[in-house]
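Practice problem: predict the structure.
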Amino acid sequence: MTAFARAERAALADSLLAAGPDAPTLCAGWATRDLAAHLVLRERRPDAAAGILLRPLAGHTRRVQERLAKTDYTALVGRVRTPPAWIKPVDEAMNIVEYFIHHEDVRRARPGWTPRDLPDSYEAALAGRAKGSARLSARRFPATIIVDIPGHEGTRVGRGGPEVTVTGTPGELLLFFTGRQEHARVEIDGPAETGERLRTARLGL
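Answer:
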């Protein structure tokens, strides 16, 4: 098993420390301290993590996250950097996407960012996740979206209709189809109106 999630976790922790506790992120309403609190909650507070996806439990999740965000920032990031022991067997499956996306949430919220040059093996690992994200988030989009990943097998998603092609690296497509269209470097070809609707659509969970 590769260790992309472990390496991304360490890089994200470095970026969180470098940015400081009150830097912006691409997660609406969250500063870096809030993002770090979310990551700690997700792995260490199973009683609260369910509220990330289940709306009836969201209030408890929010309160726990707010308390975590008020703790010492350096210690909080230290908890992000050092995962709990139980996670090791599932770290790659559970976190390769989570940590890549949230690392970019920190990086791309700062002026002057540039895309990272990821190893081919990492891009290959992200390619399948990018396709899965596209299938999930754009399944109801009223057009046919051709997801073109140069060097990797692409996919088609959407409900059918006008065709629009979205081309990019696996990492950029993953960001695009998790609702970060404005910050993802992809090319969109097809009817202008359909492309614009896709750029502004509410994608992601």
